[in-house]
Design a protein that fits this description.
heterodimer, A: mainly alpha, Rna Polymerase Sigma Factor, Chain: A, Arc Repressor Mutant, subunit A, 2 domains, 11 helices, 71% helix, B: alpha+beta, 4 domains, five-stranded antiparallel beta sheet
C-alpha cells in the first residue's frame, strides 16, 4: 500500500512552482522585467563564489559577477529551456572567468614582472601558518582546468554531470581532472604533509 | 593511463559518490583486499577535506544588486534613449513627410482647414429660422428698420440689431442692448403726421407687409445664438426707406415737407420702385454669420417656408391638414428664445482674434459692433442716392424729433428734474448734494459700476457705449462731484501745519537736551 502510494506520487507530473527558475524566466520573456531581480537574488551568491574560487581574488568578484548577470539579462529572452538555468548561468560564469584570466595573462606580457607576478590575496606571508591559507595557496597553484572541476565538486558540491555541463566537457574528463587535481594538490602539500594530515 | 592510476581515479570518483551501485560494490571489494587502495582512499579523503575546508563562502555584497541594475539600465540606455526619443523621432518623421507632402501639394492644409470650417459652418447653419418668428416683427419694427436701421432680435426687445455705414462707406452692424421702453409708435405717428386717408393707410400697410415678407429671409437666427445677415439687408433698408418716403411725398407733399427740407424731393417714385424691385428680385445667398465663437461669411440657401407653401398650394386636398401643421410649426418657431450674450462668449471671440480678417469686432458692455471690411455686397444703384441719403438721414432725425415728446426740465437749487410725459423710465431727478452715479445710470436703465464711471471720467479710457450715452449729462454734473481740488488744498494746509509742528517739536527737543546736559554738568561738579 505504502509503496503504491509512493509510486503514485512519483508518477505525478512535476508541478512547477510559480517562483522556480523556469517560471521566472518565462515571466521575464513575457515582459515582466521584475522577475530578473528574483533570479539575481537567488543565484548571485553562487555566482560570486564560483568566481572567487576560480580566480582566487575577491576584488574582481563583484565586477565579474555583474558582467555575468548583464550577459544573462541580455540573452535570457533567447533561453531555450533545454538545460537547467543554473547550468547555463555557471557556464557563463566560468567562461567569464576564463576570459578574465586570458586577458590578465595577455596583460602580464606587457607589465613588469613584479607587478604581473601577483599572488592570490590569501597567500600573504602573515598568514602562511594558517592551514587554510596554505591549502588555498596550493589550490591556486593548480592549473585552471584542474582547479575549477575540483572546487566545483568539493566546495560547491556540483555533480560530475553538472561540472561537465558547466565547463563544457565529458564526464570522464571531469572525473580525471578532479583526480589529477587532488594528486597535484597532494604533491604541492607534500612538504608539510605531516603538519596537515 | 596506467591501470593503477585508473583505479585511483575511480577511487576519487567513489569518494565523490559518482559511481553506480554496481561500481561501488566492485570497488569496495577491491578496497577490502588492497592496502594500497585503502591508503590511497585515506589520502584522497584527507585532500578532499582540506579542499572543502579551505574556502568559506564569500560574505554577501550589500550593494551588488543595486550596482548591477544600475549597470543594466545604463547598458540598455542606448535603446532606452531611442525609446524615450521615439515620439520626437516620430514627430520628426511626420514633419519630414509633411514637408514632402506640402512641397508637392501645398493646398493640403488649406483644404483641410476649409473642410473643418465648412463643418463648423454647417453646425451653426443648422436650424436657422427667420427673425420674423423669433422677434415677432410688426409694422412698427419694419418702419423703424427703414428709418432708424434697427430691428429687435427678440420679442421683449431686449436686444436689437443696428445697421450702418461708416464715413468711408463701409457697412457695419451692431447688436445692442436696449431697456424695455414704452412703444414709440413711430409708424403710427408717421401715418398721423402725413394725414393719410384710409386708402393710403391700406397702401402703406400693404407696402410694409410686402417688405416684411421680403425681409423674412434676410435675417436668420437659431438657438445656438447664431445670427445670419443677408448681404442684401443693407439694400433692403435703403429700399424700404426710400419707398416709404417716396410714398409719403406722393401722398401728402405738404405734410411731407414738415419734416423733410423742401429742397429734397423723392418724387421719381417709379424709378425708386424700379430699383427697389431690383433689390427684391436679386437673390443673394451670401450671409454674414455671427456665432458665439466665430464670424464667417457663407452661402445659405434658405427658403423652406415658401417651398412648403408652394407644396400646399399644389396639394389642395391636404391643405387643411398641412395648414394646421404649419400653424403649429409657426407657433413652435415663435417659442424660440433668442438672446445674444455678448458679455461672455463674444468677448472671447474678440480677445482670441480668431475671426476672419474681413470682419472687425469691437465690443463693450452694451454692444457688439461688427465692421465688415471686405464682403461682396450686392450693389444696387439708386439714382442720386448719396445726396438723397443725407436728406433721408435728416428726415429720420427730424421725424424722430418731430415725433418725440420734448422733456420738461425743471431746475431747483439742489437738483434738476427731467420729466418725459408718459415715459417714467426716462424721467428722473438728479440731486446735486446726494450724488449717486448709479442712480444716474439707472435712469438709463442699466447699472454700471460707479468706479468705472469715475475712472472713465478721470482717465478717459473706458469708452463704453453705455457710458458715452450718459456723457452729455455727466459732464454737466460731474463738477459737483469732483472734490479733488478742494481735497488737495486741504492736504496742503495739513502738510503746512504738520511741518510747523515738526519744527516746533525739534526746537523743544533741543532745548530739553540743553537743559538736561546743563543739569548733568552741575551734578558732576558737585
Amino acid at each position: 500500500m505504502n509503496s503504491n502510494s509512493k509510486n503514485e506520487k512519483l508518477n505525478q507530473p512535476q508541478i512547477l512552482k510559480l517562483d522556480d527558475d523556469f517560471s521566472l524566466i518565462k515571466r521575464f520573456i513575457d515582459g515582466d522585467d521584475s522577475t530578473f531581480r528574483l533570479l539575481v537574488q537567488r543565484h548571485q551568491e553562487k555566482v560570486r563564489n564560483i568566481i572567487y574560487l576560480t580566480l582566487s581574488q575577491s576584488d574582481v568578484v563583484d565586477d565579474l559577477a555583474q558582467e555575468v548577470f548583464i550577459t544573462v539579462h541580455k540573452n535570457l529572452k533567447n533561453f531555450r529551456f533545454e538545460s537547467q538555468f543554473t547550468t547555463w548561468l555557471y557556464r557563463i560564469t566560468v567562461n567569464k572567468c576564463k576570459d578574465y584570466l586570458r586577458k590578465k595573462n595577455v596583460r602580464k606580457i606587457f607589465v613588469p614582472i613584479k607587478e604581473a607576478d601577483e599572488k592570490p590575496e590569501y597567500t600573504s606571508s602573515t598568514e602562511t601558518d594558517d592551514i587554510t591559507k596554505i591549502v588555498k595557496e596550493a589550490i591556486a597553484k593548480l592549473p585552471y582546468k584542474l582547479r575549477i572541476p575540483l572546487l566545483l565538486k568539493d566546495i560547491e558540491g556540483f555533480s560530475y554531470q553538472e561540472i561537465a555541463e558547466t565547463i563544457n566537457c565529458e564526464m570522464g574528463t571531469v572525473k580525471s581532472r578532479i583526480f589529477r587535481a587532488r594528486e597535484g594538490l597532494k604533491k604541492i602539500l607534500q612538504p608539510i604533509e605531516s603538519e596537515l594530515m | 593511463m596506467s591501470r593503477e592510476s585508473n583505479n585511483f581515479e575511480i577511487l576519487s570518483a567513489y569518494l565523490d559518490g559518482e559511481l553506480s551501485p554496481k561500481e561501488n560494490e566492485e570497488l569496495e571489494a577491491k578496497i577490502k583486499s588492497s592496502l594500497e587502495l585503502q591508503k590511497k582512499l585515506e589520502d584522497l579523503k584527507k585532500i578532499k577535506k582540506l579542499t572543502s575546508d579551505s574556502f568559506k563562502p564569500l560574505s554577501p555584497s550589500p550593494f551588488f544588486e543595486t550596482r548591477l541594475f544600475a549597470a543594466i539600465d545604463s547598458k540598455k540606455s542606448w535603446y532606452k534613449r531611442i525609446l524615450k526619443w521615439s515620439p520626437a523621432i516620430g514627430l520628426g518623421l511626420a514633419a519630414a513627410i509633411l514637408m514632402v507632402v506640402l512641397k508637392f501639394s501645398p493646398q493640403v492644409f488649406e483644404n483641410l482647414i476649409e473642410e473643418q470650417k465648412s463643418n463648423i459652418a454647417g453646425f451653426y447653419k443648422e436650424n436657422l429660422q427667420p427673425l420674423m418668428y423669433t422677434a415677432d416683427l410688426n409694422n412698427e419694427d419694419i418702419f423703424n428698420f427703414a428709418m432708424y436701421k434697427k430691428l429687435p432680435l427678440d420679442k421683449e426687445d431686449k436686444q436689437f440689431i443696428h445697421l450702418g455705414e461708416d464715413k468711408a462707406g463701409k457697412e457695419f452692424f451692431e447688436i445692442k442692448s436696449e431697456t424695455p421702453k414704452q412703444p414709440e409708435n413711430n409708424f403710427e405717428k408717421f401715418v398721423v403726421a402725413l394725414e393719410l386717408n384710409e386708402i393710403q393707410k391700406d397702401q402703406i400697410d400693404s407696402i410694409i407687409n410686402q417688405y416684411a415678407v421680403e425681409l423674412e429671409n434676410q435675417i436668420l437666427v437659431n438657438n445656438d445664438n447664431t445670427l445670419a445677415l443677408n448681404s442684401n439687408l443693407w439694400n433692403y433698408q435703403k429700399a424700404i426707406q426710400t419707398d416709404l418716403l417716396a410714398f409719403a411725398e406722393t401722398s401728402n407733399k405738404q405734410k411731407f415737407h414738415k419734416f423733410v427740407p423742401t429742397t429734397v424731393s423723392i418724387s421719381s417714385r417709379p424709378q425708386v420702385v424700379n430699383n427697389v424691385q431690383k433689390v427684391r428680385t436679386t437673390k443673394h445667398k451670401g450671409y454674414i454669420v455671427l456665432t458665439p465663437d466665430s464670424i464667417f461669411s457663407d452661402d445659405i440657401d434658405y427658403d423652406p417656408i415658401k417651398l412648403q407653401l408652394i407644396t400646399m398650394k399644389e396639394k389642395e386636398a391636404e391643405l387643411e391638414k398641412r395648414n394646421q401643421k404649419l400653424l403649429t410649426e409657426t407657433e413652435r418657431l415663435k417659442e424660440i428664445q433668442f438672446h445674444i450674450k455678448y458679455d461672455s462668449s463674444w468677448k472671447k471671440l474678440h480677445d482670441s482674434k480668431s475671426w476672419s480678417k474681413n470682419f472687425n469686432i469691437t465690443f463693450d458692455t452694451n454692444r457688439c459692433k461688427v465692421e465688415i471690411s471686405e464682403f461682396d455686397f450686392p450693389e444696387i444703384y439708386f439714382p442720386d442716392h448719396d445726396s438723397l441719403m443725407r436728406a433721408i438721414d435728416s428726415v429720420a432725425m427730424n421725424f424722430r424729433l418731430y415725433s418725440k415728446f420734448i422733456p420738461k426740465i425743471e431746475y431747483f437749487d439742489n437738483k434738476i428734474k427731467i420729466e418725459i410725459e408718459s415715459d417714467s423710465t426716462n424721467s428722473y431727478e438728479f440731486d446735486y448734494y446726494e450724488f449717486n452715479l448709479d442712480s444716474l445710470v439707472k435712469a438709463e436703465g442699466e447699472l454700471i459700476d460707479s468706479l468705472h464711471m469715475y475712472n472713465w471720467h478721470n482717465f478717459n479710457f473706458f469708452s463704453d457705449s453705455l457710458v458715452l450715452k450718459s456723457l452729455p449729462k455727466l459732464k454737466n454734473y460731474l463738477r459737483y462731484y469732483d472734490g479733488a481740488e478742494e481735497f488737495r488744498e486741504q492736504m496742503k494746509e495739513l502738510s503746512k501745519e504738520m511741518r510747523k509742528f515738526r519744527e516746533e517739536m525739534s526746537e523743544w527737543k533741543n532745548e530739553f537736551r540743553k537743559e538736561w546736559d546743563h543739569n548733568k554738568d552741575e551734578d558732576n561738579q558737585r
